[in-house]
Structure formats: structure tokens, C-alpha cells
């Protein structure tokens, strides 16, 4: 049975597309088949990544593991309210029939497609920058005591999705918050945010993963549709020490997802 | 006549709210009166910043320069399509009557409020992460040659706004792309992006500013509603060397806006 991984965070630029690209890449390299659904109909970063990948593979005559791209736009009829639900379900069902995993990338906004994705998720991965601006969408925090004061708009949105899923008889969503763009500096801010995250995780039911550091290799290969995990197939990708550490971060993140039957 | 500064970029997390916070802070510290309009109705990071600032000023009994907060939500009637235009104009006119500057923070999405703001801008400031994922919303780039292939969704959106403004008889928008979250490393990626930016700026008519480095001081004071520019009024803000450099970056960014009559 195909497993649905949703990358969600209403906060813009938290790293949904970047993490989706790298987790998908890791799954493909493990030999699994992966379908992708890019729900950001204007930006389509994830879909663009795989288009770039096909162009690179063709022009460099190299065989790269590819994801199957779900085509939601084909169903788009914005004059017809409610077009999203049948379109979403139809594309998802099609991909589930053919792939071990379906990776869904959400926009940084509350949209009908994003809400459908959150209710359909087996695993929900929420990237989070090391910043109180990002944290503000998960929970309100007391600036003096660092105590969590209550849930905020994105936590509430996930709770709604969980409720809808339970009403529909689905198994509980495994919700993982993964820190992203971490720097090796800023220990004070990192620790404060870590404490608030630990507090919040107990209250609203998510677990958290170490996530990814801020590394240019996680973004400089986007125009070619490559990730550093393609280094054995593509000579253009440098093999420096920092890339070894970067690959380990991606690997650790995927292991943290605790996907059944995955052999990395 | 009040000048309207709009922080816009359809790309999420580029730094609109962070730059809006710091430019507003600089303007307030210069003695100017500033009104703010936060068009991100769910996230409201900029409005939240000033709410945190009021709470800090009250609890610490310190007199901090404050912006006037425009209340668009008061007009919000999402059952009534087209509610945005009269609401936007009403709030904007109110602030223009009382403030030297009106700072407008846009959401990371295409919305009616965001489109209205772009057409109303005297100065449009577009923050940009040093990343081809961000650049992809301005223009498509050839991965082999780094040549710009054509404008993308956000450039087209700005062009529409410029057209609407010209039709309405307004003066041309001064469009500035300001790089954000720059690191002192990654020279290769930085230079490639810089070349593509230079190429694009000539074609679609913007100028670019050095912008801000990635510094934790630009985000760690958010819960208290402070910026490092408040350091003379608030002892909690550390006075380290890196903060001197950070203040200079904010100052240089504001000077780059070339606002008439501004004495920093
Ligand atoms: N771990 C990382 N290391 C380096 N750069 C990163 C990392 N994660 C994200 N970025 C960069 O940060 C920016 C935001 O990331 P991304 O676009 O993946 O976020 P997003 O949540 O998908 O945004 P949106 O809400 O717009 O869809 C991009 O420029 C991306 O290249
Ligand atoms: N110059 C900077 N230095 C350090 N952190 C920064 C800087 N600029 C932005 N950030 C951080 O990056 C993240 C995104 O910034 P911000 O929220 O200001 O972007 P935005 O464009 O307003 O996003 P959205 O599209 O969600 O409105 C936040 O966590 C913020 O604290
Ligand atoms: Mg994205
Ligand atoms: Mg913002």
C-alpha cells in the first residue's frame, strides 16, 4: 500500500519544496518508485525540479531515477468551485496505484488543495526555520518566559485535518517537525527555540527531527534538477567533505521518518 | 505627500516581513511617522511585531517609537467578493493623511490585496534569497549558460501592476530587488546569481541593492517587537561588533531606497 508523505507548512519559505526534493531523491535512490504532486499551482518548484531533471538527463544522456509527476493542473477549472477535491483524489489514486510513495508538496498558504493533502497524509513533514517568526505560526510564545501560550494558525489547521481524517476512519497522521536551514552558530537562539519546540511537541502531538543545515549544495543544483545524492551518476557534482556531511543529513532525515519497508 | 513602500515577493520566506520590520524601524528612528498595512491576513507577522512592541514598551515602561497600525481586517467580509478594494483604499488613505510613510507588507501569494498594493506602490522592494528556487519566480534561467530565458510569474505580476498604475496616471514605480539572507560563504553561487540578476535588471527594469546578510539578530528580537536599531533605548540588546555591521546593513538598505527628504 502506497504511503503518502505530505510536506506542509503555511509559513512561506520554511523549506517544503527543498525537503520534498531531497527526500524524494533519497527514496528514488533506494530503488522505490515515487509519485509527486505539486500543489503550488503558480510556483510549482517541485514539478519544475523534475522538469529540469528530465532536461538534464536528456541533454547529458544520463539515466537518472525519475519520479512520476501527477498532473493536477489538467483538472483545473477555477470557474467551477470545488474542482479541487475530485481532481486531487483522482491524481492521488492514479499515483498510489503505481508508486511505493506519493510525495505531496504544499504551497505556503491555506488553500483547498493544501487542506485536502493534510487530511490525506500518512506522514506529515513540517520544515521549520530556526526563527520565532516561523514558530509564530505553530504557537504563540511568551517573550519573557519562553513558555508556549497556545496553538497558532498552522497547528489549528493540522488539528482540523487530523479531525477530518479520524471522522473518515483513517489511521493517525505521523506528524514530524524537521528543523531546516540550521546554522552551526546561534546556539542561544537555537536552544531557546528547541525548548519551546519540546514543550509544544508534547502538547499538540508531533515529534521532531534534527533536519537539515543551511547548505548551498541543497539549492545550487536546482536548475539542473539534481541533488547531491546523484553524485555517483553525475560528475558535475563535487565530492567535498561538506557534501558527505550533507548526504548524511538527508539520510538521517529519511530514517527519522521511520517509513516501513524502506531500505536506504 | 506620504510615500508608499511596498514589500512584495510572491515567493514565500524571501524576507518581506523581516525587511519591512527593519526599514520601518529605521524610518521611525529618523523621526518620521510611519503607518503599516499587513496584508497577510492569516500570518500577520508585521502587525504581530508591533503588537509585541507595544507589549514590551508597556511591561518595561520604555518609550519606543511606534508605527500606526492600519486595520484592514475590520473591513473583511469574505462573503462579499471585491471587499478588498474599498477596504484597502480606505485604510491607505487614512494612513497617508497622518504619516510620512506607509509601509505595506504583502503575503507570499497572489491575492487581491497584494495586487492592489503593487499598483499603489511608489517604491516596491522585493527581497530575494540567494537561490535559484527564489530566482525562478522572477525569471527562467538556462542551467548551462546562466542566461535569462524569460520572465516568470512574479515579474509578470509586477508588470501588470505597472501597467495598471500607468493607466491610472500614476508615476512609475521604483522597483528595487534587495538580496537577503546573504552568507559570507558560497561565492560561486552568489556570483552566478548576481550575473543573472544584472542581466534581468536591464530587461525588466529594476535596480538592486546589496540587502541584508543572514544574521540571527534580524530575527531573535521578534517576540519582543524590537530591532537592533532600538539598542540605545533598550539595554537587553547586545552591542557586539556584528551588531554594528548589522545596523550598517539596514542603514545602507534604507539609503539605497533613495527616499526624498529622509534624514537618517
Ligand atoms: N537546508 C537548506 N539549505 C540551503 N538553502 C535552503 C535550505 N532549505 C531551503 N533553502 C532555500 O530557502 C528558500 C526557501 O526554501 P523552499 O522554497 O524549499 O521553501 P518552501 O517552504 O517550499 O517555500 P514556499 O512556501 O514558497 O513554497 C529557497 O531559496 C531554498 O533554496
Ligand atoms: N536577513 C535575515 N537574517 C536572518 N534571518 C532572516 C533574515 N531575513 C529573513 N529571515 C528569517 O527567514 C524567515 C523568512 O523571513 P520572512 O518571514 O521575513 O519572509 P516573508 O517573505 O515575509 O515570508 P512570507 O512569504 O511567509 O510572508 C523567517 O524565519 C525570518 O526570521
Ligand atoms: Mg515550495
Ligand atoms: Mg511575511
Outline of this structure?
2 copies of one chain form a homodimer. Chain A is α/β, with parallel strands linked by helices. Chain A is 40% helix and 18% strand.
Structure description:
The structure is a homodimer of 264-residue chains. Chain A has 264 residues and is of the alpha/beta class. The first copy, chain A, is 40% helix and 18% strand. Chain A contains 8 helices and 9 strands. The first copy, chain A, has helices at residues 16-29, 45-59, 84-98, 112-120, 132-135, 153-167, 187-204, 241-256, and strands at residues 3-7, 34-38, 68-69, 101-105, 123-129, 139-141, 148-151, 174-182, 207-213. In chain A, the strands form 2 sheets. Chain A has a 7-stranded parallel β-sheet, with helices on both faces. A two-stranded antiparallel sheet of chain A has the order 6-7. In chain A, helix 2 (45-59) links the parallel strand 2 and strand 3 (68-69). In chain A, helix 1 crosses helix 8 (241-256) and helix 4 (112-120) crosses helix 6 (153-167). The radius of gyration of chain A is 18 Å and the shape is globular. The model of chain A has no long low-confidence stretch (mean pLDDT 94). The interface between A and B is large, with 41 and 41 residues. Residues 16-17, 40, 45, 105 of chain A line the site of one magnesium ion.
- Structural class, from helix and strand content of chain A? alpha/beta
Q: How far is the N terminus from the C terminus of chain A?
A: 19 Å
Q: How would a textbook summarize the main sheet of chain A? A: 7 strands, parallel
> What's the helix count of chain A?
8
Order of helices and strands of chain A: EHEHEHEHEHEEHEHEH
- Give the overall average pLDDT of chain A: 94
Share of β-strand residues of chain A: 15-25%
Oligomeric description of these chains: homodimer
Largest interface: A-B, 41 and 41 residues
Q: What is bound: which ligands?
A: adenosine-5'-triphosphate, magnesium ion
Order of adjacent strands in the largest pleated sheet of chain A: 3-2-4-1-5-8-9
Rg result of chain A: 18 Å
List low-pLDDT spans of chain A. none
Q: How many beta-strand elements of chain A? A: 9
Shape of chain A: globular
- Share of helix among residues of chain A? 40-55%
Amino acid at each position: 500500500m502506497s504511503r503518502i508523505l505530505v510536506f506542509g507548512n503555511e509559513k512561506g519559505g520554511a523549506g517544503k519544496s527543498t525537503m520534498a526534493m531531497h527526500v524524494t531523491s533519497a527514496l528514488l535512490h533506494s530503488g522505490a518508485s515515487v509519485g509527486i504532486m505539486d500543489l503550488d499551482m503558480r510556483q510549482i518548484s517541485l514539478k519544475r525540479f523534475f522538469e529540469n531533471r528530465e532536461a538534464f538527463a536528456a541533454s547529458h544522456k544520463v539515466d537518472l531515477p525519475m519520479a512520476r509527476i501527477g498532473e493536477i493542473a489538467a483538472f483545473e477549472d477555477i470557474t467551477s468551485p470545488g474542482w479541487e477535491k475530485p481532481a486531487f483524489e483522482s491524481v492521488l489514486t492514479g499515483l498510489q496505484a503505481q508508486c511505493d510513495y506519493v510525495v505531496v508538496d504544499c504551497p505556503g498558504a491555506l488553500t483547498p488543495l493544501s487542506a485536502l493533502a493534510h487530511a490525506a497524509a500518512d506522514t506529515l513533514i513540517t520544515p521549520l526555520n530556526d526563527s520565532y517568526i516561523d514558530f509564530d505560526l505553530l504557537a504563540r510564545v511568551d517573550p519573557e518566559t519562553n513558555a508556549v501560550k497556545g496553538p497558532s494558525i498552522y497547528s489549528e489547521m493540522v488539528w482540523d485535518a487530523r479531525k477530518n481524517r479520524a471522522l473518515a476512519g483513517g489511521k493517525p497522521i505521523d506528524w514530524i517537525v524537521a528543523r531546516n536551514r540550521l546554522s552551526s552558530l546561534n546556539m542561544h537562539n537555537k536552544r531557546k527555540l528547541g525548548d519551546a519546540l519540546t514543550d509544544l511537541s508534547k502538547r499538540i502531538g508531533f515529534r521532531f527531527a534534527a533536519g537539515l543545515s543551511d547548505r548551498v549544495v541543497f539549492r545550487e543544483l536546482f536548475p539542473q534538477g539534481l541533488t547531491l545524492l546523484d553524485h555517483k551518476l553525475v560528475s558535475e557534482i563535487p565530492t567535498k567533505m561538506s557534501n558527505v556531511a550533507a548526504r548524511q543529513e538527508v539520510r538521517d532525515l529519511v530514517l527519522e521518518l521511520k517509513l516501513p519497508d524502506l531500505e536506504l
